[in-house]
Each structure stands twice: as structure tokens, then as C-alpha cells.
Amino acid sequence: MKKRLLATTLAALLAVTSLAACGAKTDKTDTQTTGASSAAETTKAAAGTSASTGGKVTLNLSWWGNQTRNDVTKKAVDLYMSQNPDVDIKVEFTDWSGYWDKLSAMAAGGNLPDIVQMDYSYLNQYQKSGQLADLSEFISTGTIDTTKISESIIESGSIDGKCYAISLGSNAPMMLYDKAIVEKAGVTIPDQMTMDQLYDISKTIYEKTGTKALYDGGINMMQIMARANGSHLFDELTTGKEDSMKIYFNTMEKFAKADFSISADLLAEKNPDVVETKPIIDSSTWNDFLLSNQYISVSKTAGRDLGITMFPTITDSKSQPIYLKPSMFFSVAESSKNKEAAAKFLDWFVNSTEANDILLAERGIPVNSAVADAIKPKADEISQHVFDYVAKVSEVATPIDAPDPSGKGEVEALGKTVVEAVRYGDATADAAIGQFVPEAKKILEEAAK
Amino acid sequence: MKNNQTPPKRKETLAQVLNRPKVAGYVFILPFIIGFLAFLAIPMILSLGFSFTRYNILKTPVFIGLENYRTMFTGDPKFWKVFGVTMYYVLFSVPLRLIMALAVAMLLVKSSKLSGFYRAVYYLPSIIGSSVAVAILWKRMFASDGVVNALMKVVGLPGDIAWLGRTDTAIWTLIILAIWQFGSSMLIFLSGLKQISVSLYEAATVDGANGIQRFFKITLPMLTPTIFFNLINQLINGFMAFTQSYIITQGKPRDTTLFYTVYMYQNSFTYNKLGYGCAMAWFMVFVVGLLTLILFKTQKKWVHYEAEG
């Protein structure tokens, strides 16, 4: 009996592994053939019939976000369901970091939700592994109407000439400041300051009001510094160049040692990675760094009007580091059984004024120019600030970095660890550079395998 | 057994087959077997296989032999750091939790009108203790503007400590949370205490032994099997702790609260290095197995079973 049980177990195991192998293979062939228009037609026809005969279509939709986004998205989805009674949309949402953990596990299991919110930094990885459906066919058949969307937006979600993701809006990195505190200290905030100016202003504000300053230690700041230095972060890290990281960690150390900086232990507790607990919200600091689409949520949580200035640059910068980031992509999963229905929803989400009346640019300024014009007057004062800021940035912005390579997540985590060591005074800038650059290079090499 | 077998040629209905004594037993345990295979045995075997591969969760695994284990032991300083953190946590949280559990059990063993109520109340933290809600509650309590600091201020101590942000205090907030969840061990201690014969205490009292002597000479030795059982149980639990580190501190500050399981999870799903994550999992299986084995070996020296005299 023991032997037979063992045999059955092994047989089952074999079946499972071979199934998994088959699954992987079909996925690949799918991506290869979807380019052909005839195949596209058949898929479409099949989807059409199944939708008409099968009754209700169920779509899964998932996104990362904050409370404001969760509320408005759910409201928009409800509206869509009431207009399309044959579509049932199940929603799921988490915060940013949990989202990617969950999504990768879902992707490995072949259960990616039909519609997934995608980020510029992850687009490459997911497309390369055949997880995302080619949307070009839906664009060419007009299921997704792109006539009022700028070509560059479609391009930003395209890889090798095929569109895999539609951006819902554009974002730009920004620095926030507390207007009341700045006024009390009697300083004026320039449109875009240098790190040295930020240092001096922070010092003045601390001396006059006792409010501390935040110096961002994340990967966004690294990217900005590299750009200001006339290069790109991942170009430097893959070749092991230290130039920009020298500027980054030396500035980091300078701020970490300053009295006016928020203490490392309080910062660890506040966790600026989560919108709702950013230190500016309870005035632990007078400034904070974020992407423009987070502004609405931070302002609402803080309950006051916060000032916006451009993300700082370095003194004697070689180029303007500010960029416009096509953000909040939506993709359809390659494993989805209802791609057509999913594409229809995307079309509505992007192009309909009534949907965007609810969403109100929380994900960024709508990419459909007619929709953007239509909702701009309706947007409240807070959203207007975002509209204005993005418009201002678009005048000076330089092109964004190429999509991040695989291994970005781990490099980012490494960066945080090293930055913490500097903040707690356990490592000097030189030690940090000596650890970060080679280790990041190793991670990127490993991930590229 | 042979007599029970039906003649081989005759056709049986499904019900008859299932009713055969040899088969019926298996049918009854089938739900467990299916669950065990689907959720434990097969995933475990697969994970052992994956631990020898480079498995970017979005791509097909590639066999790389012992590379993951080599990286783990020689090329990943963070691995040893989180291993140390986890050992520290287990080393302090498990004994302290058991002491707490025993102390409360001793209080509750005397039956009174309210003892049932108290037992339920003290057990409550263990049910809800590893939940997300409690983790968030803990985070608020130990925040720099939280209730712990407020209480400290009331009694005249410095009330502005960032418990969760300081490298020397953060892990202790998690250990305190663990101690608070003493309920299940407490219940087991309670039943253990009740089994100790009253006549032993009576005899000791007659001989003039005081309370402390009775505790160390009677209660503790008689309780050693229960202590042993709880110790093994809690040790395994301690190594598996995840929620506290993941939600309350995210491993911060300076990775001083980054538990082994959280780092394993990060590797598997955040960095998409599932193969490496599986290798880490199997090392943990080995360590926990080894510690349990050592405890079993030392059993003879300190665990007292009444039957053996």
C-alpha cells in the first residue's frame, strides 16, 4: 500500500509539474501570435459569442492606492456596472508595496486579475514574461478609442511597437511644504530650489519655528540626482559608476547630520512611504516629497492646503531633472478570458467624461484632452493645484528614464537599508557608496539572468 | 484478513467497494489526505525542488544546483542578520511568554465564581493577537505620541521615546506583544496544574514546606511534561512569527526587527527570487528540526514523567 501511495503521489506530482510547464508554453505562443490580425479577429469573435450566450461577464480589477482613490474608483465602477448590467466587476486594492507582492504571486499562479493597474517601473518585467495582453488590436478596431489621446502617451505604454498599457494620466515629482510654517519663518520658497538652498531654508525654518525638515532618501531622489548630473541612475548602477551616487550620499550625510532634520528614529516610525502617515501630515516636518498624483490624498489627510514646489535639483546641475511620468497604467492580463469586455471598460474609464467626473484627476491629469478640458472647471481647488503644477512642469520637463530594469525592487530596498545606516549615523557617505554601488550592480546582474 | 476478501471476479457496486473494511478507513481519512497533499506535501516537495533553481516568479525556473544555499551562507550578510534577529526574538519571547502563562495559570487555578470569565478574558489576546488589527493597535500604542508615552509622562518618565524607531527598543515592542499572547500556553498549564494530585501538597504542608518550596519541589517538577510540550510548541511558533514584523515595523529600524519569515517573503515576492526564498524556507525547516531534536534529547535530564517514578 505504501508503495502504491507513493506511486500515486509521484504521478500526481508529475501531472502538476507538466501542467505548469504546458501553461507556460501556451502563454508564450499566445503572445507571439496575437500580433497577427486574423488571430485577433478570432479571439474577438470568440469573446463576443461567449459574452452574449454566457450572460454575465465577470471582470476582476485591481489597483494600488490610497483611501481617496479607493473611494472614487469604486464609485466609478459602480456606475459602469449600473450602465452595463451584463458586466460584473470585482475590485481589489492594496497599498503600493503589498500590491506588487500580491501581483507577482498571482501572475505566477496564472490568476492575474483581468484588469490590473500597472506602473511604468514594472511594465517591462510583466510584458517580458508574457503576462500582459496586446492592446493594439483593440485600439485598431476602435474598442479602445485613442483619437483624443496623444501619441506619446500610447507610446509610453508600448514595447516593440505594441501597446500593453494605457496611462490614465501624467504625474511629476514634487516637493510639498506647509504654507503656515513657511510664512511664520518668513522665507519664500522658490519655484525650484537647489539642495543647498533647501539646506539653508530648512535651517532658517528650524531656527525660527522649531519645525524639522525631511530629506528624501528614496529611489526617486536617486533618479533625480542622477538626471541632474546629466546621467541616468540605472545606467550608472549597471556599469558600477559612482558619480551621481557620490553626490547623493554626500548630500544625504550632510542633511542627516543637521540638527534641523527629522530624527532617524521618528522617521522610521512615521514611514513616509505610506501616504496617510507622511510626516508633513501632523507637522512633524515642514516639507515632504511625493508624486503629484499623491497630492490630493495627502492634502485631504492633512486637512489643509499645502504648497507645491518643484522637486529640488543640485547646484550647477547639468540638466533639468524634472520629468513627466506617464502614470497609473492599466493593462489587461494575457490570461484573461474576457479581454474584449476588459478593453471596453478601459475605454470607458479613460474616455468617458462621467467616469472622470467621479475620478477627478486623482490618478493624474486625464490623457484624453477633451475629458481633461471638460473636468478641469469641475475639479476642486486642491485638484486645480495639481493641474497647474503638471502644466508648469510640462514646460521644462526632460524625457523620463527608460523603464526600470528587473531587480529595481531589490535595489530600492538596498538603497533604503544603506540610507538608514547613514541616517542613524552608522555609516559614512563613503562607506555607503562603497556598499551600495557594487551591491546594486550585483543585484542587477543577477536579475538580468 | 484474507477471509474478508470478496471473490475477485464478481462485480461490486461503488458503495460495496467503499464499504470494504480495507477501503473504508482510507475513505474516511481522504479529506485529510487530500488537504495534506494539496496544501502541505506537494507544495513542500515543490519548494524543495525550487530551492535548487533560479526562479524569477514571472519566468520559468532554471536549475542552478546549490547556488542559492551558497549565496545564503556566504554571499548575503543580511541573511545572517535576520537569522540573528529571529533567534534573539525567539530566545526572549518564548521563555518570557511561558513564565507569564504559568504565572497567570497559577492565579486562575483556584476556582472562584469568576474564574471561567477570567480564563476567557486572558485567552482572548491569543486569538486576536496575531491579527492585523492588533498589529496596528500596537503600532499606535508605541508611537511617539501614543498611549505608552502618555502613561510614562504621567508617572514622570520621559514621554517622547520613539519606541518603534530606536534600534534598541523596537524589537522589544514585538517581544512584549508576544508575551501578551500567552493564552494557549496558559490553558495547557491550567490543565497540567489541575492534574497534580492534591495529596502531594497536603503531605508537603504537613511536613512544613512553605509556598515557595511547594512550587519548586512539587509544582514545577510535576509540570515539566507540560512545560516541555509548551516549549516545543512555542519555539516553532516563534520562528514562524510574521505579522508583527511585517505590519508593525516593516523590519525597521536598520533591519533590527526584520524577521526571517519576512525576509523570506520579501525575497520570494518583492524581489521575485522565489528560488532563494524556498532555500531560506528549507534552512528554517532544518534549524527548527534541529532545535526540536536537541530539546527532545535533553528531555531525559529534566522532564519528569510520573509513570517512570
Automatic annotation (TrEMBL), chain A:
Q: Where is this region: Disordered?
A: 27-52
* Segment forming the signal sequence: 1-20
Residue spans of biased composition, Low complexity class: 31-52
PROSITE patterns given for it?
A: PROKAR_LIPOPROTEIN
InterPro entries registered for this protein in UniProt: Bact_solute-bd_prot1 (IPR050490), SBP (IPR006059)
The superkingdom listed in its UniProt entry is Bacteria
Coiled coil stretches, renumbered? none
The record's listing under Pfam families reads: SBP_bac_8
Sorted keywords for this record are: Signal
Name it.
Answer: ABC transporter substrate-binding protein
Q: Which organism is it from?
A: Lacrimispora algidixylanolytica
From TrEMBL, chain B:
Topology of this chain in the membrane: Multi-pass membrane protein
Domain ABC transmembrane type-1: residue ranges? 83-295
Sorted alphabetically, the Gene Ontology cellular component annotations on this record are: plasma membrane
Gene Ontology annotations of biological process type: transmembrane transport
Q: Which InterPro entries match?
A: ABC_transporter_permease (IPR051393), MetI-like (IPR000515), MetI-like_sf (IPR035906)
Q: Enumerate the CDD domains for this protein.
A: TM_PBP2
Record SUPFAM superfamilies: MetI-like
The UniProt keywords, alphabetically, are: Cell membrane, Membrane, Transmembrane, Transmembrane helix, Transport
Name the Gene3D superfamilies on file. Answer: MetI-like
Q: Could you tell me where this protein is found in the cell?
A: Cell membrane
Give TM segment ranges.
23-46, 87-109, 121-138, 170-190, 274-296
- Note the Pfam families from the entry: BPD_transp_1
The family assignment reads: Belongs to the binding-protein-dependent transport system permease family.
Task: Report the protein name in the record.
Answer: ABC transporter permease
Give the organism the record lists. Answer: Lacrimispora algidixylanolytica
